[in-house]
Specification:
Distance between the termini: 55 Å
Number of helices: 9
Order of helices and strands: HHHHHHHHH
Oligomer: single chain
Number of strands: 0
Helix content: over 70%
């Protein structure tokens, strides 16, 4: 128990009061609604672990990958029950291995003073390339999912393809990941609202995506400000080296 308290204290060190409040509020809301709606224990654990994961990610904590792994396994099962095969393949074939890769990549780029990962930005050229690849990927994968007989193939494809891209940006520590996550969360909320009438639907999972959306907006602002500071410092150091 003492080790657990020490670990939590370390993870929350440097957080502002509103950030800690947001973590507990988001978790309590999902837990409370899930219990009230008599959701399955799998749905409850998937939702809670997912919320903790994205908030820890936004705060630059490497432990987000631990909670992300738990969420990945449980969410894949729920998506399979709802016949969202794109999400099943995304979680089992992509998120599981990239959680390991992400842990290794972030561990090499952690700020020892703040316990947060170093953040950076993409160039305009990279932004345009990313947009083109996203469009090709979304429409191409939607065609595959339609052949498999999945529900809402285009929406499912957008959720899957954009999640793949966002995860890569997350591992690479790019601020732009949060813009992509916002798009993913909007699509996912729509997808799970449509799934409410099906047997495999989960109220807590829908609520989880809604919290993800709010969190993505909050963390975009945080990463935008911090990555801008890093960009200015790098530019300043480059000028000094030229002199």
């Amino acid at each position: 128990m003492e080790n657990l308290k020490a670990s939590m204290k370390k993870e929350l060190s440097g957080w502002k009061m509103w950030q800690i409040s947001w973590l507990f509020l988001a978790t309590i809301i999902i837990l409370g609604v899930s219990i009230y709606q008599k959701d399955t224990w799998i749905g409850i654990l998937a939702s809670c672990s997912g919320v903790i994961c994205v908030i820890f990610c936004g705060m630059g904590r490497i432990s987000n990958y631990l909670f992300g792994t738990i969420n990945t396994i449980l969410y894949a099962y729920i998506a399979w029950k709802a016949k969202y095969y794109g999400d099943v393949m995304l979680n089992l074939l992509y998120y599981l291995p990239t959680n390991i890769i992400g842990w290794i990549a972030w561990k090499k780029n952690m700020n020892g003073e703040t316990n947060e990962v170093y953040k950076k930005r993409m160039s305009v050229k990279m932004d345009l390339l990313l947009l083109a690849l996203s469009l090709v990927g979304v429409f191409g994968y939607a065609w595959v999912l339609k052949l498999l007989g999945g529900n809402l193939p285009l929406v499912d494809s957008m959720s899957t393809v954009l999640s793949v891209i966002a995860q890569i940006l997350m591992i690479k520590r790019f601020m732009e990941q949060w813009l992509v996550w916002i798009a993913v969360d909007v699509v996912s909320v729509i997808m799970w609202v449509a799934a409410l009438s099906t047997e495999g639907a989960s109220i807590s999972v829908l609520l989880m995506w809604a919290v993800f959306l709010i969190n993505a907006v909050i963390m975009f602002v945080k990463w935008f400000i911090e990555s801008k500071k890093v960009q200015k410092e790098e530019a300043k150091n480059d000028k000094q080296e030229e002199i």
